[in-house]
Amino acid sequence: MESQHLSVYIRRSVDAVYDYASDPANLPNWAEGLSVGIELVDGDWVSISPMGKVIVEMVEPNKLGVLDHWVTTPEGDLFYNPVRVIEADGGSEIIFTLRRQPGMSDDAFEADAIAVVTDLATLKELLERG
């Protein structure tokens, strides 16, 4: 499996970045590639995404900066996304591991990478001004 590790440095503490990014309700504010709107429906976070309505399941809250999550597409496909927030030079680095899916073209993989980098840049801007 091919992966890319995409990251951004944020001049905020690990706790501040983790607390904000781990709340699915905040996804529409910074993760346009996953959510332009989200609501809690019968215990599931249902997000309006470029793929249609998807279910987002975050890993249990933790003190390790783990933001892993699973996305279930409208077709029922399940995708695992490893994400970490780590201490870096007085701030934080958030690292998203993008995995190429079976049969995914180079162009689609590159488009996914651009979407993730854009979302991480939005998170950085949002948290550094707040």
Could you explain the architecture of this structure?
The chain is α+β, with helices and mostly antiparallel strands and 130 residues long. The protein has one domain (3-129): Alpha-D-Glucose-1,6-Bisphosphate, Chain A, domain 4, CATH 3.30.530.20. It contains three helices and eight strands. The chain has helices at residues 14-21, 27-30, 106-129, and strands spanning 3-10, 37-41, 44-49, 52-58, 69-72, 78-81, 83-88, 91-99. A hairpin with a 2-residue loop joins strand 7 (83-88) and strand 8 (91-99). The longest helix has 24 residues, at 106-129. The protein is globular, with a radius of gyration of 14 Å.
What distinguishing features does this structure have?
single chain; 130 residues; Alpha-D-Glucose-1,6-Bisphosphate, Chain A, domain 4; 5-stranded antiparallel sheet; 3 helices
As a percent range, the share of helical residues equals: 25-40%
Overall CATH class: Alpha Beta
| Rg calculated over all Cα atoms | 14 Å
Structural class: alpha+beta
What is the CA-CA span between the terminal residues?
Answer: 37 Å
In short:
With 130 residues, the chain is an alpha+beta fold. It is built from three helices and eight strands; from the N terminus they run βααβββββββα.
Question: Topology of this protein?
Answer:
Blueprint: E1 3-10, H1 14-21, H2 27-30, E2 37-41, E3 44-49, E4 52-58, E5 69-72, E6 78-81, E7 83-88, E8 91-99, H3 106-129
Antiparallel strand pairs: 1-8, 2-3, 3-4, 4-5, 5-6, 7-8
